[in-house]
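Deliverable D4.2, example record:
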Amino acid sequence: MKTLYIDCGMGAAGDMLSAALLELLPDPERFVERLNSLGIPGVHVTREKAVKCGITGTHLRVEIHGQEEGEGAHHHPHHHSHSGMEEIEHLVGKLPIPTMVKLDVLAVYRLVAQAESKVHGVPVSQVHFHEVGAMDAVADITAVCLLLRELDPDRIVASAVHVGSGTVRCAHGILPVPAPATADLLRGIPIYSGEISGELCTPTGAALLKHFATEFGPMPPMEVDAIGYGMGKKDFPRANCVRVLLGKTSDREDRIVKLECNVDDMTGEALGFALERLMELGALDVFTIPIGMKKSRPGTLLCVLCRAEDKDRMMAALFRHTTTLGVREQDCRRSVLQRRVETVGSPYGPVRKKVSTGYGVRREKYENADLVTIAREQDMSLEEILENLRKQ
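Output generated by the structure prediction step:
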């Protein structure tokens, strides 16, 4: 299985990700020429050799009308260009790139817009991206989306993300690291701080990881075919780079923990709440089975599947949210299909589709939340929408 691993030991930013991925191509200069031919207003991209702590890699220099700019304090001085989602959609819609790449670019921007909307308490339509909406960020995001389409990995895994520490100055003032929008984008993704002072993960980098990476954790066993280093502009005691490794992994097998308990004195509503909380806390799956207990009383077997590192948290939640007096545990080995999410075009706009592959099997399923949203907007049934999507 073709696997891409992204090492975020020094965070992630759009220009660093694109530079690292560029090194995986057999003809990177040709790709840069293609990027410059897209007609992004005022943008010119140059591929430069860069050395950080003795490691040679690539820095992508993005100039806007002849001047280099950046998306965050981690790389370059801030600028204060203001673009809304409508302007971004109009710009991306005119770019001579495949429709699927346009959908990826816009999906990344929508993630940022939603995070900014939540942080600032305004509707998405009123969000102005400041640094993120500038033309250099359009170039970075478009480059990453194009590169990943060209590399076409079956599986994208990223490490835990080093976010840096201290504070960062942005258009709204001095903010803690990670900046609020970045922190929101990194919900559900393992992150950590460290001895490096500064912003290592930018909103653009966080959104790209959230959109494309389907797993976060250590590098899986893999035969590496190519390695790329994408360099940031600033110097730190550690090499300021994103490293990507492209290679092959076998069909996947991993280990999980199964926790279970018997209960016979809880209401259906209380059990339902316990299941919801366990899933919110990161359980892989939670399910119940009707059972008969002592004295012929009906009861419920509550089962939780989780990663080994989450076992203690799940155990505490079971005792807190159920009436059980004991929890059994069992180490399990499971084989799983590789899963990723694709964004596809439809008559109703972009729709996410879950794709699972491995062991000679391929399965596809549309994201139910997207179907429900379309059904409400179009006043149609889910069956009608699915039938129309299958016809396209």
